[in-house]
Amino acid sequence: MRHPLVPKLFSCLMKGYSLSTLKKDLFAGLTVGVIALPLALAFAIASGVEPSRGLYTAVIAGFLISFLGGSRFQVGGPTGAFVVIIYSTIERHGYDGLVLATLMAAVFLIAAGISGVGRLIKYIPYPLIIGFTTGLALLIFSSQVKDFFGFSLEHMPGDFIEKWMAYAQHYASMNIVALSLGFGSLLSIIAIKRWLPALPWGITVIVIATIFSWICGLDVETIGSRYGGLAQSLSAPSLPDFPLELEKWQALLPDAIAIAVLAGLESLLSAVMADGMTGTRHKPDCELVAQGVANAASVLCGGFPATGGIARTAANVKMGAKTPVSGLIHALVLLVIMMLFSPLVAHVPLAALAAVLMMVAWNMAELDRFFHLFKAPRGDVAVMLTAFALTVIVDLSFAVQMAMILALFLFMRHMSVKAKTLQPVEADVDRAVPEGMEIYQLRGPLFFGVADKIKDLAHPLRPSPRLYLLEMQDVHVLDASGMYALHEVALKCQKEGTHLLLSGVHGEVYAALKQFGLLDLMQSQSVFPSTKEAIEYAHSLLSENPSKELSPPQSELG
Description:
The chain is mainly α. It contains 23 helices and seven strands.
């Protein structure tokens, strides 16, 4: 069962599943289910949708991510990372637009998993991840200020700057009771995390704040007063109206890409974190396929985008989970709570939920890592700050694209500065270079970032020798820019009567040169298996033509 697309659940069950393992999974699943309840409600409200949709997402997506996923310990559902994307997508395209964008993202995720893209997660720069994660945390924190302070705002702006301007304009509408309850909830969370870390702080504070608010009859907004009663059963699957206009699909494409990238990135990071805690190995491609299926099912049944939750997955591991069964149990626990206790959940005060989300944002930001990265090279700091600033000011998808492009440019610059691509070779005892011949060693990949160094040989002011020998035994990668640079050198040699020799060309590089038409075009080339043979050929060629221009050979060697 080692196939990369076979779910971990099946692998674990095939190896045998004991009663003792079930007990550990049951305890972990029950605990994580209780932890996930307030998060599902809070993330739904912060995303601008009804809290019931958060429960739909946690149950449906959470179950499928554990059932089909590639990690033993992954617990999926609504996460803070999606809050900003969901809110902005719904604001621009409505809930149906979010459903369509998520279905497009699901197709991207499934295709990425089948094609093996999951293994490319290691190429995402760490500063980029820290930058956009901290930016998302700041946005989540900002979105909760309204409920925490009890501001009376009919419409909450989506833009970060406009949001804080609205807060400043409506500070007089602050609800002191809501602020007191929110501040008390926040202090309670800090106290529980400090002195009672074994307690699930989210659900504990929500229960305390709800009971206190109900007993004292506090005049604060609750889930029920703003959104009405919660659903007590899952929503039946339904298909949205698929638009025929191409413009609609094009408008949704950036949101779909952002959802797919974030779902894939967050889930794989969570799985890697779980592997680090347990010494196991997940299946990244299987995980992406599971994310695609789970997201499609979630939005078709009234939910919204989901991914692997790092906090819930870590709690799952700490509670002693052994297999994905704990994730299935977590989803069933939420379903039971929704069916039996929804009327009680409607009394939860929004100020307390805001306090929970503020603490989630604080944990998500990981400010110690953010500030520690300022000690890294300036290029890494620039990538991190670009991702952070663009996430906050523009949007996540644009931030990731620009930060990734910047990281690639910085990497290419670093490679081109540090790489010793073109090295002159001095004569020695074993390689007696004849007079009139120059040898250069090409080292490392010949890609567009270093191609200009090869072109130095073709500079019009550079005097050409009678023979050039390029040693290529250390060249294993050659792109079109590298081939074009060699092409310019060959044209100069052909024009000035210089004989160009190549040695040590590997099979793949030789095939690339031939397919590019370079060897056919440069008829004056000779390709040799080794430098020694090339030098011997040069000796014989120069001895036959001691003073006059060398004539090109009739055929290639090698």
